[in-house]
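Predict the 3D structure for this chain.
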Amino acid sequence: MRSSASRQGSTPNFERSLRIIPDILLISHSKKRPMSSRIRSLFSLFKLSLSAAHQDYTTGSIRRAVLLLSVPMILEMCMESLFGVVDLFFVGKLGKEALAAAGLTESLLTIVFCVAVGMSMAATAMVARRIGEKNPEEASHAGAQAILMGVAVTIVLTLVGYFYAPHLLQIMGASPSVVAIGAPYTRVVFGGCLVIMLLFLINGIFRGAGNATIAMWSLWIGNGANILLCPLMIHFYGLPGAAYATVIGRAAGVAYQLYHLFNRKGVLRLLRKHFLPDWIIIRGIYSIAWTGTLQFLIGGASWIVMARIIAKNFGSEAIAGYQVAIRILIFFLLPAWGMGNAAATLVGQNLGAKQPLRAEQSVWAAARYNTIFMIGVSLLLLFWAGPIVGFINDDPGVDRVAVLALHIVSMGYVFYGVGMVLSNAFNGAGDSRTPTLLNLCCYWGFQMPIAYLMAVPWGLGPKGVFMAILFAEVMITISSWLVFRRGNWKKVKI
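Done. Predicted structure below.
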């Protein structure tokens, strides 16, 4: 006989999403409550979302769960996006070559970020599933094994980036002057890969456990240190000083994470025994992490190819404008990614609690909220791209390219917001293969060749690259929506 969850799972997806009780602000069971009472209730909920208290996200209001998780996750991602913007602001004062060197290094660092995000995604899925099963001991064990894997992988990436920095910049199409300025900066950045990995990975562990507040504060601490140190370090060390500031800032965030990870006061209590290699768990994490890493590498490689097309064919001014635009775009995209991370945690925990319908309803709720946010961001970038770019950079040629990129790419922001939630939902369920295949088809099969054709043979220049980015992201979102509705992600065992 089929279970009630299974019978519910057969309900059409669109009908399920309409059944969610409209408690968007979670303020009252009655619409007649005074506005002042609603505001107080909302403020109380906001305060609760920023506390470190453990919450059970497998029961109660779905929208309440989405709000409690998404607020700290959005604030966390705001801080992550601010890392790049702060560096861009101060490095931009050093000239176009320095800006291009920092931008190309950031593109190279995409590989490290992809590996870190893939590992983090696997840790979130594994820890969330165990928490949903009410097994915090195994959740702690899985988190420790993920850290072991992350450290081992990072050593390789650090050595390659540090010793081959000039060659990597040359491969990216940097001019000799950019290589000369940028190689020391690139070495410092790759020398700090370990703190990047740990920052992402440990935050993924905390998110999987439902404690997004610690993940948030680690980024706030790291970013605060970076903001204070960046101008000081650049004054004394030039361009490499920006890298020193970022590495030290991230290290401060990691120190905060480690303190809370080992103080044994939360639901996760990591002990020395948890770090003894457990090859069964390592294989389980690897099975999610390698496809998750490939998923983001595919997307990250497409950004690298976009940067190389522009750098190789249109010069330092165009690549500097592209990098300014990308940092601004990411600044607004990462908060939306925070909503996607909330969906991943809710999917993982509710599948662990044998509640697939609730997992799906959580995704639709998060997608709706993200859509509202991204509409606002699209309007902001369409009408105020010029002042935003001008605040970061004062070169007219760079500004023209950056504003053009923001106007074109931001037209698809609503699709990006929904796509992020759907991709993270697959990942939270442990089904990292589905978004990986979708990324492969849409980025490598479509975006990269179309970007080159439109930019070079068809003569559209950088505009062709920006249009290809827009088209590919729309394709990914539509494809993800169609596959998500089939529901195969609910059956994944991890």
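Confidence is low (pLDDT under 50) at residues 1-31.
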